[in-house]
Amino acid sequence: MTTASVVLTPVVGALMLVEHAQHGLRVSTHDHGYVRDYSNGQTKERGSYKNGRLNGPHTTFYRNGQKKSEGVYKAGKQNGLWKMWHDDGQKQAEVNWEAGNAVSAKFWNRKGAEVKTLHEARK
Question: Which domain holds residue 17?
Fold first, then answer.
């Protein structure tokens, strides 16, 4: 079992990401973003920062390498269209966000049928 703690600290317009982990969890950083990997080497997530807040494209992945979610943060809040997929690559959700508030959403179950809630989509 992998355990980790993350500390995010804004440093002179850049972001320093310090991660303590067991079992080889890797995080690489650059001035305004990061890439975090699973212990199997697959990318877990990648994102970018501005002034110490999530800002710009943000993508997460399942352990098997399939894309899990994709969207944009603006000043630390979800903004615009976010897409989510099941671990087999099938579409799970599309949610429109405005300044961190969901304004519309569509969900699909694993069979591709549209459903009313994310809970139903995850069944």
Answer: 4-121
